[in-house]
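agent: user wants the full assembly modeled, not chains individually. Plan: 1) parse entity lines 2) check alphabet per entity 3) run joint structure prediction 4) return tokens. Steps 1-2 passed, three entities, 297 residues total. Proceeding.
--- entities ---
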Amino acid sequence: MGEEVNMSEYGGVDDDRVSDWELGLPSADDLTPLSHPLISPELASAFSISPEPRRSMTDVNRASRNTLSSIRGELSPSDGVAFKSFDEERGKDKDGMVVEGEESDPDVAGDGSGSRKVRRIDENCDEEMENGNDGGSARTQVKRARLVWTPQLHKRFVDVVAHLGIKSAVPKTIMQLMNVEGLTRENVASHLQKYRLYLKRMQGLSNEGPSSSDPLFSSTPVPQSLNEARGSGHMPMPMPIQMTHPPQMMHMAVMGMARGSYQGYDSSSYNMLQQRDWSGSKFGSVASYQHVTPNDK
DNA sequence: TCCTAAATAT
DNA sequence: GATATTTAGG
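--- prediction returned ---
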């Protein structure tokens, strides 16, 4: 769940008080995010309604999340899971570490029937080169950390692409349907580019055996959707995607991950779980961000 | 505007 | 070298 980095600053100061608080608090999963959209993203996209009202409550969100994270980080005596507070290496620009908060997710069985977990990307900006009061426009785009396409995220991506049809699967639409907070169109575009490449390869080598190049892609069943999904000239009626109705935001917040070691995923669990929802598996979080070097480009 | 391919960066 | 981001052309 929402691992937060800056909690390291408060590390272990108030464990006692925290445990008192947590007694009456609902679990993080039960909380409805403030960013709760009123209509389903499918519907929204069907009618060209912007799914994200662009609330200006981002600060509030962040604040409450921080609080939650802090609490979460300190509790766990009841679970067998050991939450370790993580200290991060900020000094080294090339170093990052994976912090996966394992979340007990009891409702995995139905795969989408129950309450979908809220998902979002928690970006973290290290040093923010804040605007030196330039022209005054709030244009200062904080450099996002490197997005890591976790199996969950990719699965969502594939689902959306599949149901859109390969034709109308364009970055913007995909991004909207995925409804992952913080996920940019460029993120999707980039991934889509790679995904298309992958599909092409697979198509060319349809009788290719085990060694499919990408562990991520090969793990996700590729839909036979080289066909168009939407009738031409029709209004984009949202299709009943596998994802359940309130597919709110993906909740995700994981930092770091050493470069180049992504392929270290256990391929066996891939095959086992390829049709299941990934939540609850060892992949506690949906996506992760890699720490970005303070280097400016 | 935005999609896609290519270049660049990590 | 793989992945993700950024740039450039349409």
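agent: reporting back. The CA atoms of residues 205 and 218 of chain A lie 13 Å apart. Residues 93-94, 146, 170-172, 185, 189, 192-193, 196, 259-260, 290, 292-293, 295, 297 of chain A lie near DNA strand B (CB under 10 Å from a C1').
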